[in-house]
Amino acid sequence: MLIATNCIFRVSIGKLTIARLFGTSCSYSIEEGVVSVKGKWIGAAQVAVVYVGTVVGAGFATGKEIVEFFTQYGIYGLLGILLSGYLFIWIGTKMMMISRQIGAASYKEFNDYLFGKKIGSVVNVLMLVVLLGVTSVMLSGAGAVFQEQLRWHHEIGILFTIGLTIFVMMFGVKGLFSVNIVVVPIMVTFSIILAGKAIAAGGLNIQLDVDKMFEFKWIVSPFTYTAFNLAMAQAVLVPLANEVNDEKVVKWGGILGGAILTAILIANHFTLSAVPNVVQYEIPMAEAMKLFLYSFHWFYILVIYGEIFTSVIGDIFGLQRQLHIMLRVKNTTITVGILAIAYGISQFGYGSLISFLYPLFGYVSLALLFLLIVKKAE
Questions:
Q1: Residue-range domains of the chain with CATH
Q2: Is the overall model pTM greater than 0.85, yes or no?
Q3: Is the pLDDT assigned to residue 206 strictly greater than 80?
């Protein structure tokens, strides 16, 4: 998940440009406050692309996140995905609608509105802690790619990523986030192709397990997964919704984005269900590529690493900007400090961190999901 807590959207009279997140110009024209039907759908598609690109991140690319929350539960995981998809469509759209109605320019203002200023301040600090945890998971994921796919020691992957991150942060991140405009469509394309290959091979292993029917985890997973992802996506979706001039564009953009996320989750679930012993792999989507599309395996490894690296940069960029305001110290010092802490946490291992931290962050984020459900959008 790419998290950029300081996304800037350039707005001019008669035109909204959603350019900074993906590094490309995505605009629709408005004349005298009236948007054509074609213009509205183009605008909605642009909002949907931002929504999908914000949620579809490194954990999604590796497949480990999907296995942890859904695939390990078989057919019940599929039911969980359908519920999660409904929440992405409903609550994700509602979050953007409320943001627009209250004129929230940042996730801080949005949380102050939801929780009140006192509790909102605590929530905003907690968000920074979660962001640090996610950065640690991403670093560990880089190590997992090197260890499981390249057969190198995981420390090489972690230290290489840290070094590359410091270099990029020192010389600027301009244009780096534009990687997502290429990476996300590639990931979506591969997800669809792999799902088709898995189904054609007759390798689906989605069975009805009566023993798991009443287990607590598969029932709560859709809520924690959606809560965690929407909590992280606030940083992008809240200011985006506030800058879009047409309410219907926001609404249909949220619906379309949620529907696309649901389709990708289902496709990846089918693919991962066809991988034997999928739970044991740190990078299960890479194993799926070996099984069903081996000729593109190494290319997809680069895609996964690219998504992990841009996620690390996005997380640290957001942390750096917020901590600089709070601590008033040099950005380089903050970056090194963040990476030092993240390095220590990353030693627990990618699979272990996702299994522990992501559900934990999901439970913490349930308060946000609950308040979004009960809050009424005007």
A1: 10-374 (1.20.1740.10)
A2: no
A3: no
